[in-house]
Design brief:
heterodimer; A: about 500 residues; mainly alpha; MetI-like fold; globular; B: about 350 residues; alpha/beta; D-Maltodextrin-Binding Protein, domain 2; 2 domains
């Protein structure tokens, strides 16, 4: 399975070798690549910075002040995660055609992705022991200075991790950027694919895109460095004394309201408007149902395969720790940084070259899902298996129960909840996947995402609305899961049994 | 017990393989019973959804439509080779027909399938036939422009005075067909220069509908597309066409290029009779008239069919002479890649 996860990387590497350095240089050293690189890098830098600023500011206001209705605001600020970025792009451009190019892309993508910074920062703020800050105050530091010198450094891992996620999402983003007409590597690869199918130019671009992703991963590792954020003793994660907003209360509320209106209000308004007035619609129940069923079948198959594939990876990593097993586990994380467009392209080319029978089958699409979402399953299943003590297996063995029966009667019941949670996460992720689905779904198979895409890219905004609504509904449970796994209760360190 | 990495991998492999099998079986079950005819359709889905029931009624045959895009489906058929389930292939533009034809996968059409189509829209070896045509056109915004401001040739859009004023969609098969005509008529160097100029001047958008919208809203002064998009919008409610008008190029200019939608029968088809019946029906008067009366507003190629009079009459167009079988798709994408449009 880990091998399968490396197919996309292997494909890019092999293909780059096949193309040969001379031709490759011609394909890479051309003005178009420079233009795409400039677009991609500036947009990534702008969105990551804006998400960090927005994420931290919002988190501090919600967590550390006497703002009224903090729980409600928290929910509203996380809610944009339930609107896939491409649906958000559709919502904006169908309301206002001037939202496009760099400005439009920056606005829409930042509004879609800032919660990826906001959430971990909130979690970190909740876990900090205010005693450290109180010590700083007692030494005469102002609250602002304390924040800068004591709190901010402790937020660093959350910030970097969040910014990394924003960056990776942005590099992989296809739908929103295509609708908003801001070409990046991902959209350009799709255009090449549409015109040349499996041409060398697309692969050369995929190579550059993969390098960008790896660069982000390494930069994050490097910046995070080996600083220690731990302390002796667990401290007490009690609530900090809230800052009194005083006359800043109204401006703070206005700012939060503005963010919520832009991030949730606009897409909701646009969606409802198209549902209500869309001229190109009567509600096509048959097609909606067909797309929904196809989506569910694919997502179920993908969730089962991905979760099953995660089990051996996690088993090795947890129960048989060693260099080899760590490498296998980590290699699946590399796939986490691979955009759907690269995985899609890799599987198109690899299947046509090596196993043409699987091309245009649902199986290939499911394999793509497994590659894309294996990391999510691994993280969840791993948490479960770590809590299932190996000693119970030994006890079972000593009582004369065979290994298979032990797995069935002891281990499986213990890790079943985490398997379920992992499968659920993957199911939800697949339901809204667009890019790889567009490239790999068998001819005639339509999912919610591809139906939405074909309607919205043909400007049939009204016809796209019901699909957009379903995509949002499908995304809500995953968002709730994320919010819950973020609550202080689940974040406290696990006590070894 | 210890589980070796190899065993874990093997287990995962088995799990994966069996699930893949189930998944692909599931996907295969989308069809109940086997159809009498499988059409790989890259023409507009809405059009064939209107047409096919008429054919089914006439013939009593059960037809399965698989919809996709020109190049995607052409390449798919080439990859499937003689195992392809496709009996008939329909495209929007002819370069995709050439891809399948060059792979030697079409079989010669019966005379009945091509007799009602003018000979310039049928390759001389009769491996496929045109059944609809679409005219290249420039749309212009009527607030900022008049017909007199429009250039005599589509090649003029590459001139500096059009900088930032013209929209087009280089990723679509439509525009690429237009480029293939420019290539056939003007040669490689002129095409490369034209593309470089367009790259410099143009507002690049996703598809022809967005071209129309950009022109209509005044975001740009002009756009390159096919005429039927504009007529369709006018026929519906005009919301994206009421601020714009069409400029047809004349005089056999490359900008007057007529792109031909093709129909061909796969040599590997096990339903040759049904396939011949369909293509013959498709080029016959009944189907051609049905297409003429549909929402499509593309030009039927059978002269017996009468199109909506709102559309500029077919015989008033002045298209250049282009060999329908000679349009080169791969060279076009190479040139466009070199120009930085792809």
């Amino acid at each position: 399975m880990a091998l399968l996860a490396l197919v996309p990387l292997g494909y890019v590497a092999t293909y780059v070798l096949i193309i040969g350095p001379g031709d490759l240089w011609d394909l890479v050293a051309r003005p178009r690549i420079a233009e795409l690189l400039r677009n991609t890098v500036t947009l990534a830098a702008a969105c990551m910075s804006a998400s960090v600023v927005l994420g931290v500011a919002l988190a501090v206001v919600v967590e550390r002040t006497d703002l009224p209705g903090r729980r409600l605001w928290h929910g509203l600020l996380v809610a944009p995660l339930a609107v896939p970025a491409f649906v958000n792009g559709y919502a904006w451009i169908s309301l206002d055609r001037s939202v496009h190019g760099f400005g439009g892309a920056f606005l829409v993508v930042t509004l879609s992705y800032y919660p990826l910074v906001y959430l971990p920062v909130v979690a970190m703020l909740r876990r900090l022991d205010p005693a450290l800050e109180e010590s700083a105050w007692s030494l005469g530091h102002s609250r602002a200075r304390t924040f800068r010198t004591v709190v901010l450094p402790q937020l660093r891992p959350a910030l970097l991790g969040g910014a990394l996620l924003v960056g990776l999402h942005l590099l992989a983003e296809f739908g929103a950027l295509s609708l908003l007409r801001f070409p990046t590597f991902t959209t350009a690869i799709y255009d090449q694919y549409g015109s040349t199918f499996n041409g060398a130019a697309a692969t050369a671009m995929a190579g550059v895109l993969v390098l960008l992703c790896l660069f982000l991963l390494l930069a994050e590792l490097r910046l995070r460095g080996d600083r220690r954020y731990a302390r002796v003793g667990r401290g007490a994660a009690r609530a900090s004394v809230p800052v009194e907003l005083g006359r800043w209360r109204a401006p703070a509320l206005a700012a939060l309201a503005a963010v919520v209106v832009l991030a949730i209000g606009v897409p909701a308004f646009s969606l409802l408007r198209w549902l209500a007035v869309g001229t190109s619609t009567e509600f096509p129940m048959a097609e909606l149902t067909r797309a929904l069923v196809a989506t569910i079948v694919l997502a179920l198959a993908g969730a089962v395969v991905t979760t099953l594939a995660a089990v051996p990876v996690v088993w090795l990593a947890v129960r048989h720790r060693g260099v080899a097993s760590t490498v296998i586990e980590r290699s699946t994380y590399v796939a986490n940084a691979l955009p759907g467009i690269v995985v899609g392209l890799a599987l198109v080319v690899a299947s046509l070259r090596l196993v043409p029978v699987v091309y245009q089958t649902a199986g290939l699409l499911v394999a793509a899902y497994a590659i894309l979402f294996l990391p999510r399953a691994v993280v969840t299943v791993r948490a479960g298996l770590e809590q299932a003590p190996a000693v119970l297996d030994d006890v079972s063995h000593s009582l004369g129960v065979g290994p298979l029966a032990t797995a069935r009667r002891v281990t499986l019941p213990l890790i079943a909840p985490s398997l379920g949670a992992g499968a659920a996460l993957v199911f939800l992720a697949i339901s809204t996947e667009l890019t790889a689905t567009l490239m790999l779904s068998p001819i005639g198979t339509r999912t919610l995402a591809t139906e939405f895409w074909s309607a919205s890219s043909e400007l049939r905004y009204g016809a796209a609305a019901p699909y957009a609504l379903l995509l949002v509904l499908v995304s809500i449970p995953a968002t709730l899961l994320l919010m819950r796994s973020d609550s202080p209760a689940t974040q406290t360190e696990r006590v070894p049994v | 017990m210890t589980t070796s990495p190899r065993r874990g991998a093997a287990r995962a492999g088995v799990a994966l393989a069996s699930t893949l099998l189930v998944a692909s079986t599931l996907s295969g079950c989308g069809v109940f019973g086997s159809p009498d005819l499988v059409i790989y359709n890259a023409q507009h889905e809405q059009l064939l959804d209107e047409l096919v029931p008429l054919f089914e009624e006439d013939s009593g045959l059960d037809v399965e439509l698989r919809n996709g895009k020109d190049l995607e489906m052409a390449n798919q058929i080439v990859e499937e080779g003689t195992d392809s389930p496709a009996d008939v292939f329909l495209t929007e533009n002819s370069p995709a027909m050439s891809i399948v034809d060059n792979a030697g996968l079409f079989t010669e059409l019966p005379g009945s399938a091509t007799e009602s189509i003018p000979e310039q829209y049928v390759p001389s070896d009769r491996m496929w036939t045109g059944f609809l045509a679409r005219s290249t056109v420039a749309m212009y915004n009527t607030d900022s422009m008049t017909e007199a401001d429009m250039p005599a040739s589509i090649l003029d859009f590459a001139k500096p005075e059009w900088k930032g004023r013209v929209a087009f969609s280089p990723t679509g098969a439509d525009f690429q067909a237009i480029v293939s005509a420019v290539l056939a008529l003007e040669g490689e160097q002129a095409t490369a220069d034209w593309l470089a100029g367009l790259k410099e001047n143009g507002e690049i958008v996703q598809n022809n509908l967005v071209v129309m919208q950009s022109v209509d809203s005044g975001e740009v002064d002009a756009g390159i597309a096919y005429s039927y998009y504009w007529y369709r919008d006018r026929a519906e409610n005009g919301s994206d066409s009421d601020g714009s008008a069409l400029h047809f190029f004349g005089d056999q200019d490359p900008g007057a290029f007529l792109s031909v939608s093709g129909a061909g029968i796969l040599a590997s088809s096990e339903h040759q009779d049904a396939a011949e019946e369909f293509v013959t029906w498709l080029t016959g008067t009944e189907a051609q008239q049905a297409m003429a009366e549909s929402y499509a507003l593309e030009y039927p190629l059978n002269p017996a069919a009468k199109l909506n009079p709102a559309v500029k009459p077919f015989d008033e167009l002045e298209p250049p002479q282009v060999d329908v079988a000679g349009l080169n798709g791969p060279q076009v994408t190479d040139l466009m890649t070199a120009a930085g449009l792809l």
